[in-house]
Here is the input.
Amino acid sequence: MTPIIEIAHLTKFYGTREIVRDLNLSVPSGCIYGFLGRNGMGKTTTIRVLLGLEDPTRGQTRIFGEDSRRLSPEARARIGYLPEGHHVYGWMTVKECGSFQASFFPRWNQDIFESVITHFRLTPKMKAGHLSRGQRAGLCLAMTLAPEPELLVLDDPALGLDPVARRSLLQSMLYVTRQPNRTILFSSHLLSDVERVADRIAVLDGGVMRADCTVEHFRERLRHYVLTFRDQPPPTPDMPGLLESFRTDRELALTVANPTSETEDWLAALQPESMEPAEMTLEDAFISYVGERGEKTFFLREPQRR
Amino acid sequence: MKALVWKELRENVKWAFLAMVAFGIAMGYALSHTQYGYPDYYYNDGITLCKKSFLIVTTFGCPAIGLFLGLMQILPELKRDRWAALLHRPVSRGLVFAGKATSGFVLYVAATAIPFGLAVWIVATPGNFGVPFLPEMVKPGAADICMGAAYYFAALTLSLQRGGWIGLRAFPLLAAVHTSYFVLASDLFYVAVEAAAVMALVLMLAAWGAIQNQDSLGARPWLGRLAFLAVVFYGVCGLGNIAESLLNTIGPSPRSDYTRYELTKEGVPLRLNYVSNVVVSVTDPDGKPVSDPKYQPDRVRNQIDYLNRISDFIGDSHGWKTWRRTRPYRESRTYLWANSPYQYPRMEQWFHLEKQRSLICYLPNLKTAVARLDQSGFQPVSSAPVPFPADVELSTVDQDCYSLCAPAGVRLAFLARREIRELPLPAAGPVYGIANAWEYSGQGTVRVLGVALSAGVALYDEKGVRIGMLPYHQDMDRWGTLSLGVDASKEKFFLRYEPSAWIDEKTEKTMPSYVEVMDASGRVLNSYSLPPLPEFPRPDSLDTFLTRRLQSPAIFLGNMLYQKIGAALGSTRLKNALGWQFGSGWHETKEISIWSGLLSLILAAATFFWARRAQISRRRIWTWTAFVLAFNLPGFITFRLAADWPSLVACFGCGNHRTVNAENCPSCKQGWPEPEPTGTEIFDRQPL
Here is the structure.
C-alpha cells in the first residue's frame, strides 16, 4: 500500500535541545494511526514538521509524496488539520466560521458541517466566542471534516475536554471518519482516546519512537508481575525490558516489555513466595510504558539507609 | 483572498476606528491650540497644516497608528495553534500575507488619511482660519502618512520574525526610525516620500519573506532574504541615528575657534576672536590689543554696528548664479510667511506667498482675504492674480513697506496706504541689490535704504526720498560683495567690500576686504584695509568622528559614482557636490576613504574567521565577508544579527563541536548515532 505519510530519520532541534530524534514512520493509506506520548515528547513538533509549519533539522517528511517543506495548496486541501487548542475566531458566528472555512476548500460538504454542529447542539447564529470548550472543539471538528479531507491530522483533539465532551467528539469522529481510504494521524497523550479507533499506534518517548505496532500487539508485549516475599523484597533486578517496579513492605510489582521465558527465570531467581502475572488494562499498560522508568516505593522506609 | 481580506477587515476595523478618532481629536486640538494662549502675530509656530504642534501629531501619530495596527493584526493570531490553523489553509503563504497586508494597509490609510483629509478640508474652507490655504501645505502631513506606512510594515515584519524583542525583532522598527530621521531631515517632499515608500516596500518584502519561513533566513525566497538584510542594515543605521542624537544632546560640544571683523558704531573695524561663540579677545585689524574699556571682550558686542548685505557681485557675474537654499518642505515659510504686523491689535495681516509670487491680505477678525499685491499692484482679492516676475526680489523694508527690486528698477509698496512708489534712481540700472541699514538712536531707529548700482550705492530715507550716493573706491569686479551700515546720527555710512561671490573659496581666503566710512555725499571719511583672517580647523564632534570612520565604503563610493553620473548628465547640484569631494573637501574624502576602508577590512577578516568557526557554509562565509567589507560596522552588526547561526553540539565521536544540521561531523566524519535501545521497544515490523 502506498504510504500517505512518510517520515524518514526526522530529527528536530530547538537551539541545542533535541526534541525529536531519528524518527521513522510510515502511514499507509486508509490507516488510522494513534500517535501517542506524554506531553512534551515531540508529538506536536513532529506534526508541525510533517505539515510544513516548521523545518526539520535533519531528515525528511513527505505527505502524498510531496516534501512537507513545499506542500502545494492542492495537497493542503486534501489534508484536514485540527490543531490543539481548538482555535476559532471569537467574533464570527458558527455560520460565518463555516462560510469562511468553506471559501478555501473546493470540496466543502455543507451537510457534514451541519451534521457535526447539530451533533454538538450548535446553532448557526451562535457567536464562536461564547461557545463552551467542548462546543468549540465540535465547531473546529466540523470545519476540519467538512472539506472531506483524504488525510486527517488531529493534534490531541480531546485535550482539555471533560469526559462527556471527549466522548461526544470521539463519537462524531468515529462516525464521519469510518470511510474507506481515509487516513488519520491522531495524536494524544491518552491511549483510551485512540484505542477504539486506531489500527496502529506509535509511541514517542523523549523524542524517540519506542513503539510502532497494532494496539493488540502493544498490549500483548507488556506484562505485569506481582511478586510476594516473606520479608522485605530484594532490590529490583537489572533485567532487560523492565519498565517500572513498585516496592511495598512485602511485595514487588514489575512491569516488563517484551517478556520472554528468560524474564520469568530472572524473577524466579529472586525466590519470591509467590509470583503472579497480573492482568493489565490497555490504559495501565500505556501509562507504565510512557511513565517514569525505574523503581518506585510507597510507605516503605528502608531502615539501613536511615 | 476575498475571504481573508474580509476577515482581516472585520477583525481590525475597530482598532482602525479607534485610531482614527484619536488621531482626529489630536489634530483638531493641535490646529486650535495657541501656544501660551496668546495670538502668535509672527506665526513662529508655523501656519495651520505646517504648524509645529500639528506636525508633532502627524509625525508621531502616523507611525504610532501604523505600528499599532500592524501589531494588532499579527500578534493575537501568532499563538502556535492559531497561526498553524491559518497557515495550513490551502492557499499559498504569499496569499495569506497579501490578504493581511492589503486589508491592514487599507485600514491604516483610512485611519490616517480620513482625519487628515478632514483637517485639510476644515483649513481650506474660507472663514475657518484667518490665513491663506495653499495646497502645498498638505505635503508634511502627506509625507508623515507615507512614513507611517513604513511603521505598519515594520510591525508586520517584527511580529512575523522570530527572535528577541530587544534583539533581531527590534531592527525592523529601527529601520522605520531611520526612515523617520530621513523624512524629517529631508528638504524635498518627493525625496521624503520616495524614501518612506521605498522603506515601506522593503519592509513589506521582508515581512513577506518572514511569513514564508519564520526561522531561517536562508530558507526564504531571495527577495525576502535581501529585503530582510536591508531592513537589519537600515535598523543598524536607525540605531546609529539614535546614538548620534544622544551624543549630540549629552555629549561634549567640540571647541570651535574663529575670528571675525566687526565694525564699531563709529565705523572702526575690530577683530573679534571667538572660542565656542564667546568673544575671548579684541584686537585691531593688525592684531594689536585694543585698550578702550568699552571694547573689552565682555561688552564689545554692545558697541557693534551690524551691516546688511546689499549685493553678491557688481558688474559681470562671471557665470555665477544666485544660489537659493531649498527650504524644507516641512516649514510653512517655504510656502508662505506673515509680514510683520504694523498695528496692534492687528486689523489686517499680509502674507507673502512664495510660489505664487504675490502677497495677500487677511482680516484676522473676519478670517477673510481682502486684498492682493501682485505685479498689477494692489488688487481686490477677487481679481485674477498676476505673479511678480522671477527676477523681482521681494523683501521687507519696514513693517508697512515692501521693496520690489528688479534689475530695471525698484518700487516700494506701502501696505496700509495701498500705494506703490517708484524709487528714482540716480543712474540707469541694472540694480544689483537692495538692503536696509539701521541703527538705534535716542530718537528711535534710524533707517536707510541702499540700492546697489554699477556706479555706487544710492541712499534713500524711509519715504523713498534719495538722500545721497556712495561711490565705489575698489576694484568692483573682484570686491563686489557689499554690506551697508549707518551710524545713529545718519551722517556716516559704512560700506564693506568683500570678495565677489563668483570668486572660488581658495582664492577668496587670500584676499583682503575693505571698509569705507563716507558721508551722504560720498566723501570718504575713513578707509580701512582688512587682511585675510586666519583659519582655525574645526575639530570634529564625537558623532562626526565616529560617523566618518564607520561609513560604508559601498555607500560612500556609490554616492560618488551617483554624483559622477549625475554630473555627466548635467546636474549642477551633483557636479558641485562632486567638486567639493575632490576640492575643498578632499581632506575629508581622504580621511573617510582610509578609515572606512581600513575598518571594513578588519571587520571583514573578523567575519571570515567567526563564520568559519561557527561552521557556516563556505559560500555563506564568503558572501558575509564581502557584505561586511562593503558595509563596515553596520554590515558587521547585520551579519551578527541576521546570519543563520547553526546550533553546535559536542560530537559523540570526537567531542569537537558540530552543527546539528550536518549529517557528518566535519572533524571525525562520523554520522549521528542511532537512539540507544532500551529493550522496551515494541515493533511489529521493521521500522523504515
Residues 141 and 173 of chain A are 8 Å apart (CA to CA).
